[in-house]
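Quick start: read one record
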Amino acid sequence: MIGIQPVDKIRAAEEEFAKENPDVNLMLRAADAVAELAERMAPEGPILVAVGPGNNGGDGLFAARKLVRDGRRQVMVWLVTGKGHAQGIVAARQVGIRFLDDLDVGRLLPDVSLVIDAITGIGGRAGLPQNAQWFAEMCDVLKLPVLAVDIPSGLAAEDHHRPEHVLAATRTITFEAPKLCHLAQPAASACGDVQVAKLGVELPRSNLRQMQRVDVARWWPWPTPFADKYSRGVLGVDTGSNRYPGAAVLSVTGAVYAGAGMVRFTGAERLADLVLRELPSVTVSPGRVQAWLAGCGWSDEGSAERFGPMIESGVPLVIDADALFHMPKKLPAGSLLTPHAGELARVLGITRREVEDDPVGKAYEAAERWEATVLLKGATQYIANPYLERVTLAIAGPPWSAQAGSGDVLAGICGALLAAGLEAPKAAALAASVQAMAAAKKPGPFPPDVVAQAIPDVVVQLAELSNQPVLAGELTPKSIAAE
């Protein structure tokens, strides 16, 4: 798990570090990391460092000094606003670095092998200075590799939006910890590959985190040698309608391919026939379950009456789509809501724009209101946990995942993991992440049910990562002979 840090906590930690280590210059450490990565990105050719007036520009200026390599490398500096870090400018001039004006930059830019973006840092506002907008456009047109220092200029560190004008990076090097803009879309699309350089500053525990593959491997409900279909988790599913029959099939598909021990489908008989035609392992007989999935594709057939028996059962629920609009004020403990932005806006009584402007805050608001975990679906998926006061970002999937039916499959995966005994925050984070990982194995316009079929392959790879013995258990003739 990677902690995502806000700007105020990073600055406070840096100030504390400076007091305790007066002989250590963090700017020089940052500059060394920038220069090292720049050398790897462009072993040869001229480098242009675009510099702003703040400390981010200072990082760029000291990196420029290091890159000169005793005059064997042409490094040029452009003071975008005409101002820069005073000590950094002196250091750069001492080694003979050439400072360019706007006309020089426009003339020489096509011959540059790398642009280092040190215009604005974590304290900057969204959007580029007007005199840097043409520069960003030229870098894009010329397809120049760009190394951003801390964040790409034009982004705001704690904002997931991507403004109209931004200097999009090929790679971004940030310090100590990622910021929200590095990981949340659409801002993350401007960051390229993000590398975190540790400078030695100790940061506090963060309540905003990003899932990693190792977390999925560690949390996955691996079966023991004593497992049976009941201990693996029995999921009850009431999904689909005459208008949306496919939702029944897709939601059950997600649950089956995520490894549910048993799926009991309780929807209409016609829908059950569709489900059994695709997934004959599903049962349609009543019985006890460890969790319920409700709401996918209910449409106008969703109602409080349909919802009521599941609520009364007392087991945790995955509540999706139309079922979200029939929720009682009190839900069974451990339940999980899986809205997209429009659905979350409706249950909160606000506009979709308000949710899209503050997905972290609004997901957490809903989690607190219903005392349930909330998985806010979208290009970036946010899991809000009201008990630990924490929000987690799932592993990101490819843009191809934005298809009708993906949410139905995701709800089924959530249900399988909830039935397996996982707490709702872990079930949601795992489900969203494993679906994204499966989509990454099927790049292209594969439909959600086909993506779901890649989940077992992902789980096998996760087993290898976590050294789980799920691939063993049988003796081959060769192994018997070896005995």
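Confidence is low (pLDDT under 50) at residues 471-483.
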